[in-house]
Amino acid sequence: MTASDAGTPPWTDRLTGRGGVSVPVATAIVVADMIGVGVFTSLGFQVKDIPSGFSILLLWTVGGIVALCGVFAYSELGAMFPRSSGEYNFLGRAYHPAFGFLAGWVSATVGFAAPVALAAMAFGEYAKSVVPDLPAIPLAIGVVWLVSLVQLTGVRHSSTFQLISTVLKVVLIVAFLVAGFVIAVPQPITFAPQPGDIAHIVSAPFAIGLVFVMYSFSGWNAATYIIGEMKTPQRSLPRALLAGTLIVLVLYVALNAVFLHSTRVSALAGQLDVASVAGTAIFGSLGGRIVGAMICFGLISSISAMMWIGPRVMMTMGEDIPVLRVFSKRSESGAPAYAILFQLAVANLLLFTRSFEAVLDFIQFALLFCSFFTVAGVIKLRITDPDLPRPYRTWGYPFTPLVFLLVTAFMMYYLLTERPVQSLSGMLVMLSGLLIYAVFRRRPVAAAASPHRE
Q1: 351, part of any domain
Q2: Where are the transmembrane segments (predicted)?
Q3: Which of 4, 137, 234, 436 could pair with 391 in a Cys bridge, judged by C-beta atoms 3.0 to 4.6 Å apart?
Q4: Contact of 274 with 43, CB cutoff 8 Å
């Protein structure tokens, strides 16, 4: 080691002093975080009220466009404030540190641990569809521990694991798509516009379906949680978010097309596991096992992405708040070990108590609330701080942020009317962070900045 290298962590890039996460790896994190089980389960409930191939594909396309509107706004904020932790960083910069703390409090405690537990439980259940005698809970716990151990080995090994597992996931999905269009017997459905499609598109089921489509697209902002580990984030972050979201948009539209192409609408309507139904139509009696194995492999990369990005919120909070300082400590390989172990412990607790679904129910509104105000922060900063350097400017401003805000406001309204108790409970959990913030008041940003921060 030369004198100029002294004190430089081995996981950082020697030329930039930043982390070594490349655009392909950051894109893989976005893709892996977005593609869970939602796209494999939503169609059955959509075709009950929207029995039109064109309208269904348009529904998923609209969902992808709304996600892209969010990508453009988050890219501007990420390029302006290149620090890991997502909404914790953005809301604190755009409004007040207390607002950022509320978002960070939810994300650092259960915001990622609950989806990790849900994905792990889904892994266990789909593994049982392949080998029926396998126990779901031990499998779920085992896969979370395995992925966590990889994360603890450091950024370089995590990058390799994430890239390989995500590429495998995409390859398996593409293979399923090819088989569906080549092997399956085509069903009498058209994807061209029909006279009755306008009625479907302006209907209430289409609007409600968009809510659940947007849940399937959640995760498009994943790379914002690791900005501090990216090379040249002002350029890399927008590219990773855009590429990842476009890849998922294409895959989602294609998956729904192959489901409808290969399987009768009447067989799909009302079914939760539409992927298995379509798999049986494509591959015969082994279809369920083939699809189960495909989803299992895919969920590993999803869990890996969430176990990577989630602890970075607690890590960054630890850099700012003295009482949480232990979570900011990194190993020589760049892993925030204590933050990873904390998220692992919470995920295991949720798995043991089977409480992850209830937790997800009551944090959904809070997460939407934070995303809404993050995108609104782009507009706010354009007005209040027009002279701030903006290495990337939101494409289509102000229309793209407004589209995202309108759809997100509708989703929050839907949750408030359909699940008022859970939504208000989620807000109470977020507001409880104010008590912690009041007790352990955060120092000014400049004073609290860590050596890893720009």
Answers
A1: yes
A2: 21-45, 57-77, 98-124, 136-155, 167-186, 206-228, 240-261, 281-309, 335-356, 362-383, 395-415, 421-440
A3: 234
A4: yes
**Confidence bin at 19 (pLDDT 50/70/90):** low
- 36-49: per-residue pLDDT in tens? 999 999 999 999 99
What is the Cα–Cα distance from 40 to 34, expressed in whole angstroms? Answer: 12
| Confidence band for 8, pLDDT divided at 50, 70 and 90 | very low
Q: Quickly list DSSP for 182-244.
A: HTSPPPS---S--TTHHHHHTSHHHHHHHHHHHHHHTTTTGGGGGGGGBSSHHHHHHHHHHHH
| Residue 427 in this model has a pLDDT that exceeds 90 | no
Domain annotation covers residue 447: no
Which letter does DSSP use for residue 57 in this model? H
The answer as to whether 112 is a domain residue is: yes
Distance, CA of 145 to CA of 123 (rounded, Å): 13
Kindly report, residue by residue over 364-381, the tens digit of the pLDDT.
999 999 999 999 999 999
The answer to whether residue 441 scores a pLDDT higher than 80 is: no
- Quick one: pLDDT at residue 414? 94
Nearest-Å Rg of the Cα atoms of the chain is: 22
Percentage of the chain exceeding pLDDT 70: 93
Are 309 and 159 in contact by the 8 Å Cβ rule? The answer is no
AA identity, residue 175: A
Query: What residue type is assigned to position 73 of the chain?
Result: A
Q: In 3D, which of 306, 316, 454, 324 has the Cα closest to residue 389?
A: 454
- Token pair belonging to 267: 């067989």
Helix 23-34 vs helix 233-262: crossing angle, to nearest 10: 40
Q: Which of 354, 345, 302 is nearest to 123 (CA)?
A: 302
The phi and psi torsions of 332 (rounded to 5 degrees) equal -60, -25
Phi, psi of 230 (to 5 degrees): -95, 150
- Return the amino acid letter for 423: S
Task: Tell me how crowded residue 388 is: count the other CB atoms within 10 A of its CB.
Answer: 11
How many structural domains compose the chain?
A: 1
Query: Which residues, 6 or more positions from 122, have their beta carbon under 8 angstroms from its beta carbon?
Result: 36, 37, 295, 299
Give DSSP secondary structure letters for 81-100.
S--SSTHHHHHHHHT-HHHH
| SS3 label, residue 185 | coil
In a domain, 5, yes or no: no
CA proximity to 162, closest of 144, 147, 174: 147
Mean pLDDT rounded to a whole number for the chain: 90
Give the whole-angstrom CA distance, residue 171 versus residue 165: 10
Query: How does 113-141 read in b/e, with b if 16+ C-beta sit within 10 Å?
Result: bbbbbbbbbbbbbbbbbbeeeeebeebbb
CATH of the domain at 376: 1.20.1740.10
Domain housing 401: 17-442
Q: How confident is the model at residue 129, as a pLDDT?
A: 84
